[in-house]
TrEMBL record:
Keyword tags: 4Fe-4S, DNA damage, DNA repair, Glycosidase, Hydrolase, Iron, Iron-sulfur, Metal-binding
Domain of life: Bacteria
Protein name (record): Adenine DNA glycosylase
SMART domains: ENDO3c
Gene: mutY
Entry similarity comment: Belongs to the Nth/MutY family.
Organism listed in the record: Aquirufa esocilacus
EC number of this enzyme: 3.2.2.31
NCBIfam families to which the protein is assigned, alphabetical: mutY
Length: 351
DNA sequence: AATGCGGGGAG
DNA sequence: CTCCCAGCATT
């Protein structure tokens, strides 16, 4: 049988992959559901951080139907600590779409898969290739880095044109004989060998890597913009009455949508006619785009006082509140103040 | 074309 | 500290 010639780049990284690949659970399956779950978890997330979440979520929701029918709050509780919580909400929306529009059968082509909410060009290519061996090249952060260095591509990866250019290049290198293997190989190569600070002395591509040959590896990939960090102050009142807490689910499209929190002080006009006990402030919470400082107080409301419940808030038992997803900032606030009795009851059993 | 969205690990 | 991670949705 006639085979199309393998580009030296492709042959080299696939040989390297055969030797150096990690054993990861989502590589032991062809189940598109499990592969999809792993890919959503791994968006902008390191393997080491996502691994325990993958095991937990797959155990809790073994099938698309289980995921589609689960209460969203349970999913967000399991997602707690992983960040980018819209991933979890879109995951369930997509599961419901698969049940409704695909009769519960996971879509099998790139063009169908990419219609699922939370699935973009990278994730659709990953699922289509890994589960169905469709020859769609993946382009993620690893691929940007590897290809930009090896072929000295000076396109700014932050530009809108970058995806198209790198997709075309990757697509020209993907072998029809093993698209899944190539996609796995190039990403693993970026993750383990062609890292942000690589050791080019042990690289199998060093002899024809264009940036290595010109000693300009550190100049690639070209990336222009950096996200600016805004400072935010968030003050919480932990309000208790008759063993219950005044809490709410965050709504709107801002940070931590779908997660739960204590009473958030919106302005200085907020007050209660009771003494506040200052709590230990959690550490400054650093995110990619936010620097959040937080102060908090504990307020015990007498049993017989009829407190007007603010819009959006509800009284909730500590055990119910523990079962809701919360931000890591709030979890830190809780675990740093366990001398406050009611906070012991909402201390998480797992992150 | 820009911006928002989480959290953590590596250097 | 800075960078960036198996990115995507929204504006």
């Amino acid at each position: 049988m006639q085979k199309s010639p393998l580009h030296p780049f492709s042959a080299t990284i696939m040989a390297w992959y055969a030797e150096h690949q990690r054993e990861l659970p989502w590589r032991q399956t062809r189940d598109p559901y499990a592969i999809w779950l792993s890919e959503i978890i791994l968006q902008q997330t390191r393997v080491a951080q996502g691994l325990p979440y993958y095991e937990r979520l797959l155990a809790a929701f073994p099938t698309v139907r289980d995921l589609a029918e689960a209460p969203e709050a349970n999913l967000l509780r399991l997602w707690q600590g992983l960040g980018y919580y819209s991933r979890a909400r879109n995951l369930q929306k997509a599961a419901q779409m698969i049940m409704r529009d695909f009769a519960g059968v996971f879509p099998q082509t790139y063009d169908e898969i990419i219609r699922l909410p939370g699935v973009g060009p990278y994730t659709a290519a990953a699922i289509a290739s890994f589960a169905f061996n469709e020859a769609k090249a993946v382009v993620d952060g690893n691929v940007f880095r590897v290809l930009s260095r090896v072929f000295a591509v000076e396109t700014d990866i932050a530009s809108s044109a970058a995806r198209g250019i790198f997709t075309e290049l990757a697509q020209s290198l993907i072998p029809a004989s093993d698209p899944a293997g190539f996609n796995q190989a190039i990403m693993e190569f970026g993750a383990l060998q062609c890292t942000p600070s690589p050791d080019c002395s042990v690289c199998p591509l060093a002899i024809f890597c264009q940036s290595n040959l010109t000693k300009t590896v550190a100049n690639f990939p070209v990336k222009s913009k950096k996200t600016q960090v805004k400072a935010i102050q968030m003050d919480y009142l932990i309000i208790e009455q008759k063993g219950h807490l005044l809490v709410r689910e965050r709504v709107g499209n801002g940070i931590w949508k779908g997660l739960w929190e204590f009473y958030l002080l919106e302005d200085q006009a907020d007050w209660l006619p009771f003494s506040r006990q200052a709590l230990k402030s959690p550490p400054v919470h650093l995110l990619s785009h936010r620097k959040i400082t937080c102060d908090a107080w504990y307020v015990q409301v007498p049993d017989n006082f009829a407190l007007a419940i603010p819009e959006g808030y509800v009284w909730m038992s500590p055990s119910d509140f523990e079962s809701k997803g919360k931000s890591v900032l709030l979890l830190n606030l809780i675990t740093d103040n366990l001398e406050c009795p009611i906070l012991q009851d909402i201390s998480p059993t797992y992150l």
